[in-house]
Fold each of these.
Amino acid sequence: MDAGGPEGGGAERPAGPFALSPIGWVRSPYQRRFATPQQASAVDSDAEAVLQLDPVLIPESALGDLAGMERLWVVSWLHRGGTWAPLVMPPRGPRVRRSLFSTRSPDRPNPIGLSVVRLLRVEGRNLHVQGIDLIDGTPILDIKPYLPYADAFPGAKAGWIDEIPRDAPQFMRHPPPRDGEP
């Protein structure tokens, strides 16, 4: 198998840039990046949101078989992300910098988000969901079904993350807003 790397030649690799268009936008109660839960499904967030799909791009028939699906993957563009760095300070655990790709920091070379949400109901092109970890206005790139037989690996190891107690406090980079502040 040819790795296609710089030294190995091999298959042609598209260099980019790539053009992506949102298929919709998140309508969420979260307005600020640093007031939004991280890994909302892990902390059982009960916040509800709506995934509003673009009526020009997405026909309602594209959503026809979602009935009975409990969870969805939402692929998003983290449009309010910052600059990325090879080492980041995770919000939980010991205050040490970790390699970017061993974390879920939103500040990445390509700020693509991956969230799993609970599907509550479908109304036209609006998907009502629970457990969102995205801010209001986040562009949606794609939606895929969560498949327990293919997506769940309960015994998988998470390296340094396994050493952090599940109920460990989360450190905030910025204080929460006061009443009346955005």
Note: The beta strands are 24-27, 48-53, 71-77, 87-88, 98-99, 112-123, 126-130, 139-145.
Amino acid sequence: MAKTIKRKKLKLPLGYKPLGFALGWASGTLAGLAFQKTWKAIRQEDNAPDALDRDRGWTEVLVAAAIQGALFAVARSAADRAGATAVQRRTGVWPGDGKGGRD
């Protein structure tokens, strides 16, 4: 019985990778859309400032980057957590190594 559980744990990360990739891609896309809508609501502009945009100030560029980073982190964490929870429900095994932290 213990050997079965050990094999399952060894095989799960490989099987989880395609699901994690798909969830990451989808969450990144949704975060990008959320950032565009958020920036438009804040500044009534369609285009957020880029770090190399000469016509934008430091504050504007860094605020936009902070908002974008926060939205991407939340979206990625939500997708990772949802995927791990779904895998655990289906297989009974949590896909992480239990150590925490990002890869």
Note: Residues 15-91 form one domain.
Amino acid sequence: MNRPKKAKPANDEIPEISKSQRKREAHALLDLARQLVSMPQSRLKRLPLDQDLRDEVDFARSIRPHGARKRQLMTVAKKLRNGDTEALLDAVNNIDEKNRQMIVRHHHVEAWRDRLIEGDDKALSELLEHGQGANVQILRQLIRNAKKEAKINKPPAASRKLFKVLREMNALETLPPLS
């Protein structure tokens, strides 16, 4: 038995989106709705949301029971589907990228702190020769105190102070890469 062949769309017709693609897009919008509901209020205020969508997100945040919250998330996703989400996606991705960059800088400062505490004066001289304007005496004292604290299992107060000093140095001029 021969099946009739489907007609190919003409060049001026828009091809139909597959059911699988529509499902992927719906799941992506549902994930975005979950992100919006779980986002801190201060970050949510900076996003370009229309008032109707903002009200739905706030209502979803106030709901505690599982089933009702799930239904409200679906409502938020539906509002997202009906509106323009390009600007909203860009804003959420921009916030996420800034957070990733801040985490990378934080880890870099932590790595320098650990290297200074575990290493010798060579690490400190490498840091200082890179042009970091810091008080050498304070850095040496904090490193020495952090080593003592680690040796006798005291809380790492000097290590925290050293981290703060390094973070301030990094804010003025980026710390050199670890070699």
Note: The two ends are 72 Å apart (CA to CA).
Amino acid sequence: MKNKFLIGLLFSVSVLADNEVHVDQSGNSASIDLEQLGSSNLIGGTQATSGTMTALDLDGVSMTLDINQIGSSNIFRSDAIEGDNFTGFFEFDGDSNVFDLLLNSTGLITADYVNMNIDVTGSSNTFDLKAGEDDDVSYLDLDWIISGDSNDFDFDIDYENATNYVDVNGSSNTINFLGNGYGGSTSSDAGYFYLDLDGSSNTFNIKQQSTLARDWISITSSASNSNICIIQSDGGTTTSC
């Protein structure tokens, strides 16, 4: 398939204004590397106008997306990354940044064998990731490395044969994770969750709800005054943290 790539760059001459990158990509084997230095920058879709955000759209197999936003009060937003064998590298250094990503949200295009690495250094950042809302993202490999305080992370994944690794070093962070899966007949079809936690006053709500009870979790913690709630369920009575 012929690659079609459209990228828009908007730069304002005002000292207080934003840099904006707008992307709408359709085609296979695309490699996209975006880097923004400074504060109040945006990465989103081509329908965005200055000051109004729409979401980035990537469609195709074997794509690579490398995002580096170095600074504070930046926004990255995508509501459609669709395709197998996607590789994503996301680095956010700074405070009060916003990351919002939907992966295979419609279920109309498969998004299996996805490898994503998210590296966060800073405080008071907000991250929202949803993968496979109406379908699963099989063989997902998701890694978070988080250094900082008062960050808020929500991620909701529908998957099987997947690994989710979260490394947190900081205080007063909140992580809400919901994992749903419809795995096969062996333990190798499970959803694996690894949590390595250092810091104090952190709050973690972790729910694994695969249909065949193939979920697995490992926690290594050197933390104080933290609240960790874990629910594993394949049905039965509803419980909550």
Note: The two ends are 48 Å apart (CA to CA).
